[in-house]
Amino acid sequence: MITFEGSMVAIVTPFKEGHVDEKALKNLIDFQIQNGTEVIVPCGTTGESSTLSHDEHENVIALTVEHVNHRVKVLAGAGSNATAEAIRFHKFCERVGADGSLQITPYYNKPTQEGLYQHFKAIVEAAGLPIVLYNVPSRTGVNMLPETTMRLSELENIVGIKEASGSIEQAEKIIQNTKEDFILLSGEDALTYALYEKGARGSISVTCNLKPDRLSLQYKAYKEGDEVLAKQIHEELLPLHEALFFETNPIPVKAALSDMNLILEEYRLPLVSMGTENRERLRCVLREQGLIE
Question: Which pLDDT belongs to residue 244?
Protein backbone atom coordinates (compact mmCIF):
# COMPACT_ATOMS: atom_id res chain seq x y z
CA MET A 1 0.00 0.00 0.00
CA ILE A 2 1.36 3.42 -0.99
CA THR A 3 1.51 5.85 1.89
CA PHE A 4 2.30 9.54 2.08
CA GLU A 5 4.74 11.10 4.53
CA GLY A 6 6.95 14.16 4.80
CA SER A 7 6.85 17.65 3.34
CA MET A 8 4.21 18.07 0.64
CA VAL A 9 3.25 21.12 -1.39
CA ALA A 10 -0.28 22.26 -2.13
CA ILE A 11 0.98 23.62 -5.42
CA VAL A 12 -0.57 26.65 -7.12
CA THR A 13 -2.00 26.53 -10.63
CA PRO A 14 -0.30 29.33 -12.61
CA PHE A 15 -2.33 31.05 -15.32
CA LYS A 16 -1.35 33.02 -18.41
CA GLU A 17 -3.91 34.96 -20.40
CA GLY A 18 -6.76 32.93 -18.97
CA HIS A 19 -5.22 29.50 -19.52
CA VAL A 20 -3.14 27.17 -17.37
CA ASP A 21 0.52 28.15 -17.77
CA GLU A 22 1.97 24.68 -18.30
CA LYS A 23 5.57 25.85 -18.61
CA ALA A 24 5.39 27.72 -15.31
CA LEU A 25 3.74 24.73 -13.61
CA LYS A 26 6.54 22.42 -14.75
CA ASN A 27 9.12 24.89 -13.44
CA LEU A 28 7.34 25.02 -10.08
CA ILE A 29 7.32 21.23 -9.88
CA ASP A 30 11.07 21.11 -10.58
CA PHE A 31 11.70 23.81 -7.96
CA GLN A 32 9.84 21.73 -5.38
CA ILE A 33 11.58 18.46 -6.16
CA GLN A 34 15.02 20.09 -6.22
CA ASN A 35 14.38 21.48 -2.74
CA GLY A 36 13.29 18.30 -1.00
CA THR A 37 9.51 18.19 -1.34
CA GLU A 38 8.36 14.58 -1.19
CA VAL A 39 4.83 14.83 -2.58
CA ILE A 40 3.29 17.20 -5.15
CA VAL A 41 -0.39 17.94 -4.52
CA PRO A 42 -2.04 19.57 -7.57
CA CYS A 43 -5.65 20.77 -7.84
CA GLY A 44 -6.28 21.44 -4.18
CA THR A 45 -7.64 24.63 -2.64
CA THR A 46 -4.33 26.37 -3.30
CA GLY A 47 -4.47 25.12 -6.89
CA GLU A 48 -7.79 26.94 -7.46
CA SER A 49 -9.53 23.69 -8.33
CA SER A 50 -12.92 25.31 -7.81
CA THR A 51 -12.48 27.45 -10.93
CA LEU A 52 -10.81 24.90 -13.18
CA SER A 53 -12.99 23.30 -15.83
CA HIS A 54 -13.17 19.50 -15.71
CA ASP A 55 -10.83 19.30 -18.69
CA GLU A 56 -8.35 21.69 -17.09
CA HIS A 57 -8.51 19.81 -13.80
CA GLU A 58 -7.70 16.53 -15.50
CA ASN A 59 -5.01 18.11 -17.69
CA VAL A 60 -3.23 19.61 -14.66
CA ILE A 61 -3.22 16.23 -12.92
CA ALA A 62 -1.99 14.42 -16.03
CA LEU A 63 0.72 17.04 -16.68
CA THR A 64 1.88 16.82 -13.07
CA VAL A 65 2.10 13.03 -13.12
CA GLU A 66 3.96 13.06 -16.44
CA HIS A 67 6.41 15.79 -15.46
CA VAL A 68 7.11 14.39 -12.00
CA ASN A 69 7.92 11.11 -13.75
CA HIS A 70 8.19 9.09 -10.51
CA ARG A 71 10.79 11.42 -8.99
CA VAL A 72 8.42 11.96 -6.04
CA LYS A 73 4.79 11.04 -5.36
CA VAL A 74 1.72 12.80 -6.73
CA LEU A 75 -1.36 13.09 -4.53
CA ALA A 76 -3.95 14.70 -6.79
CA GLY A 77 -6.87 16.79 -5.60
CA ALA A 78 -9.91 14.93 -6.89
CA GLY A 79 -12.76 15.81 -4.55
CA SER A 80 -16.20 17.22 -5.21
CA ASN A 81 -19.45 17.92 -3.40
CA ALA A 82 -21.09 15.51 -5.87
CA THR A 83 -20.11 11.91 -5.18
CA ALA A 84 -20.39 10.87 -8.83
CA GLU A 85 -18.02 13.67 -9.87
CA ALA A 86 -15.52 12.75 -7.16
CA ILE A 87 -15.62 9.16 -8.40
CA ARG A 88 -14.95 10.35 -11.95
CA PHE A 89 -11.89 12.35 -10.88
CA HIS A 90 -10.70 9.52 -8.64
CA LYS A 91 -10.84 7.03 -11.50
CA PHE A 92 -9.02 9.50 -13.74
CA CYS A 93 -6.21 9.84 -11.18
CA GLU A 94 -5.80 6.07 -11.14
CA ARG A 95 -5.85 5.88 -14.93
CA VAL A 96 -3.08 8.44 -15.46
CA GLY A 97 -0.82 7.05 -12.75
CA ALA A 98 -1.19 9.36 -9.75
CA ASP A 99 -0.06 7.78 -6.49
CA GLY A 100 -3.26 8.76 -4.70
CA SER A 101 -6.19 11.14 -4.63
CA LEU A 102 -6.96 13.81 -2.06
CA GLN A 103 -10.68 13.76 -1.30
CA ILE A 104 -12.22 16.78 0.40
CA THR A 105 -15.39 16.57 2.45
CA PRO A 106 -18.34 17.65 0.26
CA TYR A 107 -18.83 21.40 0.51
CA TYR A 108 -21.94 23.59 0.46
CA ASN A 109 -24.48 20.74 0.70
CA LYS A 110 -23.38 20.01 4.32
CA PRO A 111 -23.87 16.24 4.55
CA THR A 112 -24.42 14.47 7.85
CA GLN A 113 -21.67 12.33 9.33
CA GLU A 114 -23.35 9.27 7.83
CA GLY A 115 -23.49 11.06 4.47
CA LEU A 116 -19.75 11.74 4.70
CA TYR A 117 -19.09 8.09 5.41
CA GLN A 118 -21.22 6.89 2.51
CA HIS A 119 -19.64 9.46 0.15
CA PHE A 120 -16.09 8.26 0.82
CA LYS A 121 -17.14 4.61 0.92
CA ALA A 122 -18.57 4.95 -2.60
CA ILE A 123 -15.29 6.45 -3.84
CA VAL A 124 -13.29 3.64 -2.25
CA GLU A 125 -15.47 1.05 -3.96
CA ALA A 126 -15.08 2.71 -7.37
CA ALA A 127 -11.29 2.30 -7.77
CA GLY A 128 -8.27 0.88 -5.99
CA LEU A 129 -6.21 4.06 -5.74
CA PRO A 130 -5.12 5.15 -2.24
CA ILE A 131 -7.16 7.99 -0.77
CA VAL A 132 -6.20 10.75 1.66
CA LEU A 133 -9.23 12.42 3.23
CA TYR A 134 -9.29 16.20 3.56
CA ASN A 135 -11.15 17.94 6.39
CA VAL A 136 -11.26 21.74 6.20
CA PRO A 137 -14.52 22.98 7.74
CA SER A 138 -13.65 26.66 7.30
CA ARG A 139 -13.94 26.07 3.56
CA THR A 140 -16.63 23.41 3.35
CA GLY A 141 -19.12 24.27 6.08
CA VAL A 142 -18.94 20.77 7.57
CA ASN A 143 -16.53 19.28 10.10
CA MET A 144 -15.85 15.57 9.79
CA LEU A 145 -15.79 14.36 13.37
CA PRO A 146 -12.96 12.13 14.62
CA GLU A 147 -15.40 9.25 15.03
CA THR A 148 -16.25 9.38 11.33
CA THR A 149 -12.58 9.56 10.35
CA MET A 150 -11.86 6.62 12.63
CA ARG A 151 -14.65 4.63 10.98
CA LEU A 152 -13.39 5.51 7.50
CA SER A 153 -9.82 4.57 8.43
CA GLU A 154 -10.94 0.94 8.55
CA LEU A 155 -11.84 0.97 4.84
CA GLU A 156 -9.31 -0.46 2.42
CA ASN A 157 -7.32 2.18 0.51
CA ILE A 158 -8.12 5.08 2.85
CA VAL A 159 -4.58 5.71 4.04
CA GLY A 160 -4.74 9.04 5.86
CA ILE A 161 -6.26 12.46 6.38
CA LYS A 162 -5.20 16.04 5.78
CA GLU A 163 -6.57 17.58 8.95
CA ALA A 164 -7.24 21.31 8.76
CA SER A 165 -10.00 21.74 11.32
CA GLY A 166 -7.78 23.98 13.44
CA SER A 167 -8.29 21.67 16.41
CA ILE A 168 -5.19 20.01 17.80
CA GLU A 169 -7.45 18.05 20.14
CA GLN A 170 -9.39 16.65 17.18
CA ALA A 171 -6.19 15.67 15.37
CA GLU A 172 -4.78 14.01 18.48
CA LYS A 173 -7.95 11.98 18.93
CA ILE A 174 -7.65 10.70 15.36
CA ILE A 175 -3.98 9.78 15.82
CA GLN A 176 -4.68 7.94 19.07
CA ASN A 177 -7.63 5.96 17.74
CA THR A 178 -6.52 4.83 14.29
CA LYS A 179 -4.11 2.11 13.25
CA GLU A 180 -0.43 2.95 13.07
CA ASP A 181 -0.28 3.00 9.28
CA PHE A 182 -3.10 5.57 9.03
CA ILE A 183 -1.30 8.88 8.38
CA LEU A 184 -2.43 12.24 9.76
CA LEU A 185 -1.06 15.21 7.82
CA SER A 186 -1.14 18.83 8.91
CA GLY A 187 -3.27 21.04 6.70
CA GLU A 188 -2.40 24.31 8.45
CA ASP A 189 1.17 25.58 8.34
CA ALA A 190 0.92 27.51 11.61
CA LEU A 191 -0.08 24.32 13.45
CA THR A 192 2.29 21.89 11.74
CA TYR A 193 4.93 21.82 14.47
CA ALA A 194 2.29 21.32 17.16
CA LEU A 195 0.79 18.46 15.16
CA TYR A 196 4.24 16.87 14.69
CA GLU A 197 4.44 16.79 18.48
CA LYS A 198 1.15 14.88 18.54
CA GLY A 199 2.26 12.35 15.92
CA ALA A 200 1.48 13.88 12.51
CA ARG A 201 3.63 12.35 9.78
CA GLY A 202 3.88 15.28 7.39
CA SER A 203 2.13 18.36 6.07
CA ILE A 204 0.39 19.54 2.92
CA SER A 205 1.60 23.10 2.91
CA VAL A 206 0.90 26.46 1.31
CA THR A 207 4.17 27.94 2.56
CA CYS A 208 6.03 25.09 0.86
CA ASN A 209 5.39 26.88 -2.45
CA LEU A 210 7.91 29.48 -1.27
CA LYS A 211 10.22 27.68 1.20
CA PRO A 212 10.33 24.00 0.25
CA ASP A 213 13.87 23.50 1.52
CA ARG A 214 13.09 24.75 5.04
CA LEU A 215 9.88 22.75 5.38
CA SER A 216 11.58 19.61 4.14
CA LEU A 217 14.34 20.15 6.70
CA GLN A 218 11.80 20.79 9.46
CA TYR A 219 10.12 17.43 8.94
CA LYS A 220 13.39 15.54 8.65
CA ALA A 221 14.71 17.23 11.80
CA TYR A 222 11.65 16.30 13.80
CA LYS A 223 11.64 12.74 12.50
CA GLU A 224 15.29 12.34 13.44
CA GLY A 225 14.68 13.68 16.95
CA ASP A 226 16.08 17.19 16.51
CA GLU A 227 13.11 18.99 18.01
CA VAL A 228 15.16 22.12 18.66
CA LEU A 229 15.83 22.64 14.95
CA ALA A 230 12.27 21.74 13.99
CA LYS A 231 10.88 24.30 16.43
CA GLN A 232 13.44 26.89 15.31
CA ILE A 233 12.23 26.53 11.71
CA HIS A 234 8.63 26.81 12.89
CA GLU A 235 9.38 30.09 14.66
CA GLU A 236 11.40 31.35 11.68
CA LEU A 237 8.56 30.69 9.24
CA LEU A 238 5.61 31.65 11.42
CA PRO A 239 5.42 35.25 10.09
CA LEU A 240 5.33 33.82 6.55
CA HIS A 241 2.64 31.28 7.47
CA GLU A 242 0.53 34.14 8.79
CA ALA A 243 1.25 36.47 5.87
CA LEU A 244 -0.01 33.92 3.35
CA PHE A 245 -3.44 34.30 4.91
CA PHE A 246 -3.59 38.11 4.98
CA GLU A 247 -6.23 37.54 2.32
CA THR A 248 -7.96 34.44 0.98
CA ASN A 249 -5.62 31.62 -0.06
CA PRO A 250 -4.18 31.38 -2.74
CA ILE A 251 -4.15 35.12 -3.41
CA PRO A 252 -1.11 35.94 -1.21
CA VAL A 253 0.97 32.92 -2.24
CA LYS A 254 0.43 33.66 -5.93
CA ALA A 255 1.35 37.31 -5.31
CA ALA A 256 4.52 36.14 -3.56
CA LEU A 257 5.46 33.73 -6.36
CA SER A 258 4.94 36.56 -8.83
CA ASP A 259 7.26 38.82 -6.82
CA MET A 260 9.80 35.98 -6.90
CA ASN A 261 9.46 35.88 -10.72
CA LEU A 262 8.26 32.28 -10.68
CA ILE A 263 4.76 32.87 -12.12
CA LEU A 264 2.63 35.61 -13.60
CA GLU A 265 0.22 37.11 -11.11
CA GLU A 266 -3.10 35.97 -12.51
CA TYR A 267 -6.23 34.76 -10.76
CA ARG A 268 -9.70 33.69 -11.77
CA LEU A 269 -12.76 35.51 -10.60
CA PRO A 270 -14.08 35.68 -7.99
CA LEU A 271 -10.47 35.87 -6.72
CA VAL A 272 -8.75 39.19 -7.34
CA SER A 273 -5.38 40.79 -6.60
CA MET A 274 -4.47 41.77 -3.04
CA GLY A 275 -5.37 45.15 -1.69
CA THR A 276 -2.53 47.69 -1.69
CA GLU A 277 -2.03 47.72 2.08
CA ASN A 278 -2.00 43.93 2.44
CA ARG A 279 0.30 43.57 -0.56
CA GLU A 280 2.87 45.84 1.05
CA ARG A 281 2.53 43.98 4.36
CA LEU A 282 3.19 40.75 2.48
CA ARG A 283 6.23 42.20 0.71
CA CYS A 284 7.71 43.27 4.03
CA VAL A 285 7.51 39.68 5.23
CA LEU A 286 8.95 38.35 1.95
CA ARG A 287 11.91 40.72 2.35
CA GLU A 288 12.47 39.64 5.95
CA GLN A 289 12.42 36.00 4.79
CA GLY A 290 15.00 36.71 2.07
CA LEU A 291 12.61 35.82 -0.73
CA ILE A 292 12.72 39.19 -2.49
CA GLU A 293 14.97 42.23 -2.31
Answer: 98
